[in-house]
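Entry 14. Structure prediction run on the chain below.
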Amino acid sequence: MSTQDWPDLAKELSALVGQVRGGIPEVMKGFSAMAKAAGADGVLDAKTKELVALGISIAVRCDGCIAFHTRSARDLKATREEILEVIGMAIYMGGGPSLMYAALALEAYDQHMAAKPAE
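Output returned:
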C-alpha cells in the first residue's frame, strides 16, 4: 500500500488549482468549458467518459488526475468492478508502468469509497 492519501491529494490540488484559476481566469474558464463539454452526456454517458479519463490518467501516470477521476467515478456510482476493467485496459495500453499506476488508482478509488462524499 502506498502512503498517498488520495482524497487529501484531491483537496490539496483543488486549492492549488484555485490559485491558478485566480492567476489566469480566462484560460481556466476555457479549460472548464472544455471539461464540461467533454464530460456531458452524449452517445457516451458521463460515467463512461469519467472511466475513460481514469484510464488515460493511469496510462499517462498522473497522480493528481487519478485523485480527481477516481473521486468523480465514485460520485457517478462507478463500481469497483468497473474500475478494475478500466485498469485492465490501461495496463494493456500502457504496459508495466501503467500496472504500477493502476494499483495506485485502485487504492485511490477504495480510499474515496471509504471517505465521506463531498457535500
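The longest helix spans residues 80-114.
Filed with the rest of this week's runs.
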